[in-house]
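Handout, section 4.2: multi-component inputs.
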Amino acid sequence: MFEAAEAGHRISLEEYKVREPALRQALLEAQYKLLETGNFPVLIIVGGADGAGKGATVNLLNEWMDPRHIVTHAFDEPREEEAERPPMWRFWLALPPKRHIGVMFNAWYHDILQRDDQKPRHDPAPSLDEIRNIEQMLAADGTLLLKFWFHLSRSAQKERIKELESDPKTRWRVTDTDRQHLRHYKRLRKTYEYVLHETSTSIAPWSVIDGSDRYYRSLTAGTLLLDAINKRLAQKRPKAAPPSAQPVPTLDSRNILNTIDYTQALNKKHYQIQLEKYQGRLNLLTRHPRFARKSLIILLEGPDAAGKGGSIRRITAALDARQYRVIPVAAPTDEERTKPYLWRFWRHLPLKNHITIFDRSWYGRVLVERVEKMCSDVVCIRSFHEINDFEAQLIRNDVIVVKFWLAITKDVQLKRFRSREETPYKQYKLTEDDWRNRRKWASYEKAVCDMVTYTSTAISPWHLVPSNDVEFARIRILKTICESVEAALAD
Amino acid sequence: MFEAAEAGHRISLEEYKVREPALRQALLEAQYKLLETGNFPVLIIVGGADGAGKGATVNLLNEWMDPRHIVTHAFDEPREEEAERPPMWRFWLALPPKRHIGVMFNAWYHDILQRDDQKPRHDPAPSLDEIRNIEQMLAADGTLLLKFWFHLSRSAQKERIKELESDPKTRWRVTDTDRQHLRHYKRLRKTYEYVLHETSTSIAPWSVIDGSDRYYRSLTAGTLLLDAINKRLAQKRPKAAPPSAQPVPTLDSRNILNTIDYTQALNKKHYQIQLEKYQGRLNLLTRHPRFARKSLIILLEGPDAAGKGGSIRRITAALDARQYRVIPVAAPTDEERTKPYLWRFWRHLPLKNHITIFDRSWYGRVLVERVEKMCSDVVCIRSFHEINDFEAQLIRNDVIVVKFWLAITKDVQLKRFRSREETPYKQYKLTEDDWRNRRKWASYEKAVCDMVTYTSTAISPWHLVPSNDVEFARIRILKTICESVEAALAD
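Output:
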């Protein structure tokens, strides 16, 4: 991995002076073109040995280009708010918007690279799998992802320290960590090599740059960036290759939705008793000492008028308003549109001891967006994987995820629409969109079946709730939440 | 203040059962109307004695209405990220968007009310002046601001503790703080009374609610909220009264802009020497140990083609990319539009040891928005005050603020426009808007003069920089930043 970067690369000052102005000019032009016509973000991940010129190169790129459209992030140990979320949370929130350039020092490699280090390490760190997944996701989503590794050979590192120490003005820059790193050079190099190999995937390989000569490394990093942006700008967005297989077609008329027993119901009296029982139980659970180390995400999906709003109110009635937040998911805002799809859900992840209830969710991608053909089948099938990965990250990090599909039949929906039309203060709830969606009932049914097939996992199962009877549905939902939380607290 | 709330208010369960359903229904309808047609946010600040029903009432309001459009915030001791910003920062970020209801427990009263308490207090807390200012600002901006204080008389408080203690199942709910508060009842009451009196302004008075009877307090809070929303929905937004005086008119032709000496210039050789000198000085300053406890905000305003971008690049070249962020200010995003004007600047305030450079700023309100009549003169004059208050808060909290007006003459602007037309990669920089703005040169000149008059304060002066010669301007800007930082570090 590092051999080519130890070939003793050098660029003379004279040559640098000739080539730098042209590169600089070209980079600036590329940046402006990206800003005007690009519809993708650029993310540069910078890693490497101490003193190999990571910081200097990033500063130089900022100097060469327009710093107003570059956002640089360095990551220290996670802050309190960060540590209460899955480790990827802070990186997700820092992703650059479309048409901009983001630079992240170490990014999600921050922890994994320190594993071999003497410093205490934040646990749990993103795993190599999570890293490959997020990079795969970003690349598939359109981010131009570049990973620059600045390398120093052992002798170059030794040289650097000697040089700094020889001058009283720079002696302070040599830290104990530097000396330690030199001592453990071989071991560190092995770690780095392993991580770089494991994460040099076809969609986002590392570029290893010899960091010992500043002219060489500056021109190399600049040229890599320039070529990548220009190539991408020139390219028509390639059509993603279709997956080899499509979801299983339905050959008979049976599916998981039309085989539900919709007659299940609860009489009013029973309902009241059960409601109090499960609300009380849920309330106690959210005040359980072990819940303080957990977060809870509840998400509800279902056709219009399936009873999501009413169910949510029966859940929140059991909770303290300071502890939960309800996120109604509608069209993304313009800030959200500039980020990868899941960003707008990451931003709402609850703190420990808190609850987020999503009224519709990230499954919009494989439901409405699929039916309305706002995203292709290819993207949709990719999303199944991304969503599973997202939820797995949550669950690994002490988030309890409970997801519901509120299933109703077509005739019950019609009855509820009619009743909304007749109740003055409910009229606003019924829009032309609802009627439009209703006409696409069959497409939605197909989408839901595929969704459940691909995203109902052992760790994060779908709960299909027969909801023709609202009372029955509400109790089923509350009971399922209680049981899920109980199971998670018992772990 | 508290006398009326000690009159022994009671509502019987029978009466409550009669009145509750109607109130509940009316509140829900009001909420939906707000959501559909309202163009203002509702903010409810909830304060009061322990056990007076703050939490229970907020939970009830969430139960009565649709919790999907209510956001509740409770504030503990500031977290790390919060403590590094001015105390109002976390409250600003939590302001509800238009058409929604926000509930804040204690809000900006959090610290001031604990002053008399035994607990350690976060310092510095928002002062009474800052509190009056933000409430004034919110009200003027259109927020429907309600402040509910739940009161308990000494005997009611005693009663409550006795009652809880008598039942083994509730005994745990009585804390040491409760007992302490009872012991210091008289002193606390005095503090509360003082704070409530001082902040019961004409635009946002407190409503004191007797908290001892749950039926009474629930109906009272609900009714207050219902009436306030309905009254406001029914009301045409009143035209704000014009201020008694307008900015001084210009009777002769002299003003602060046309009396600048625009001939000041710097030759290339001198420029290079000075550039290196001041960039080096600025770099050292940002690595000064005392800078670690400061933040720096630099903002640049000026006509199109005044050289803001070029100056920013000369500043950032002196800095480490990990330490600064450049915020180019353009039209607000749709999320920003739902919040009070200054929200979109509060969200970008730097951490300690960090620097934010604003390329255009909150002064847009009194420049482009005034000239384009996007906001009335009344709002504009109010903004002068709000901006001064904002900057004063920053400065009081260890933020160094340096603001520049880059002044050029009309002929120089024309020359630069022409040169942009001729340079291929600069053409994108010249838009129809630039020509339009140019035609309004005189209006802008007037707006700038008023802006400087009203917002150049002793603690936050405007620096008018003659910028016909870009080299001269860049050095002047760098030098001014260095001197401002030095002065702040010497404090």
